[in-house]
Here is the input.
Amino acid sequence: MKTLTELNFDNRFARLGDVFSTEVTPQPLAEPQLVVASEAAMALLDLDPAEAGKPLFAELFSGHKLWSTAEPRAMVYSGHQFGVYNPQLGDGRGLLLGEVINDAGEYWDLHLKGAGMTPYSRMGDGRAVLRSSIREFLASEHLHALGIPTSRALCVTSSQTLVYRERPERGAMLLRLAPSHVRFGHFEFFYYTRQHDALRQLLDHVIASHFPDCLEHPEPYRSFFRQVMERTAAMIVRWQAYGFCHGVMNTDNMSILGITFDFGPYAFLDDFDARFICNHSDDAGRYSFENQVPIAHWNLAALAQALTPFVEVSALRESMDLFLPLYEAQWLALMRGRLGFVQADEGDQALIQDLLKLMQGSAVDYTNFFRELGDSLAEQALSRLREDFIDLQGFDRWAQAYRQRSEREGSDQAARQTRMQAANPKYILRNYLAQQAIEAAEQGNYEPVRELHAVLSRPFDEQPGMERYAQRPPEWGKHLEISCSS
Here is the structure.
């Protein structure tokens, strides 16, 4: 294991030059304090967990100190925001400190959010507040534990620096990790500004660094887009299967690697509602839960447009046409597993869709339903879960169809329960749990956020003494208003 001073930097993106990013020095926060750190994320850098307890840890991740081999840069990009093209965005409050190579030869971007103003701050102060930093930290590490592709979060540091939003709040910084921070919007920026030489340079860099197998394809750029499409579909499948709502699926928030990125007003479904809107700022519901699949497809089309100087439109359309069939097949397989089935059955699609229709409007807890269905014998579980539904006759018909499907599967109850417990989390990051941890942290008590992080890092495990984190939310907890500023 390494100390903080032993990290090995190789800043490939910085070497692309000033066309792609601007050199910026982090602006430190006053009196930094470590709020929470992820040992699992530290392990990606081969960092000794004991490093988190040293003063240098908080100093580095609050802008007070910097590695001599780091090269902090603010990246430039553009993107479609709520469907409207914004010609220049960029890292307005974050800095790519550099790229660290671990002992396995993996590259990890160190990206510091809340590090102060950059040329792309657009009238903002470049700061982050404690609540948004905690929310991204918890979500990043929890999604990873659920098996959902995501950026990671190393730590959150708080401070006595005041940041003004709707009210004065404590400033904070979050250190985010990802193999790359390149977004769909990077390609859009160089396409729409007609910098096609730079666009090709970016393409070549991303492919060589993150999609090297594409170089063996006779048309590397075409192969690249196909893989981005496939990775994006795989990510959205898991969002939908586990009830995750991103909230702001602008193209500048879409990772080229197909990982969940730029957390803002996210939420997991409490009661199942396909029309759920987690972003209080999204008046039209563009990014509602049920719209996430078509929006992902729309965003891929925006990326495809940016690649038209180098890839035939017909080839891009061919990949685009594969998105929905690929999504539907993977989603069906994942949902089949959530119901405890291994073998495919021609009636599975209807069985799952019928269940979701019954859930809609019945205030059925999406996470707890699947967990309870696999926590006991099928008959006992169905009898108990029946109480949650309004359409009892409809549920009885569904339950009978589920029994018949289980009989065709043929596996014993114990094997079914084991599979379902491995596929259905007991613990999910609910907004009210995050809010409670944030309120404690704002008062200087960091233990609740650390405990919540520990519980959510093992979402599928029974954790004696932590059952309160698996309870259905109180009514007030279902109606918290989360907006882009969150």
Remarks:
- The first strand starts at residue 8 and ends at 9.
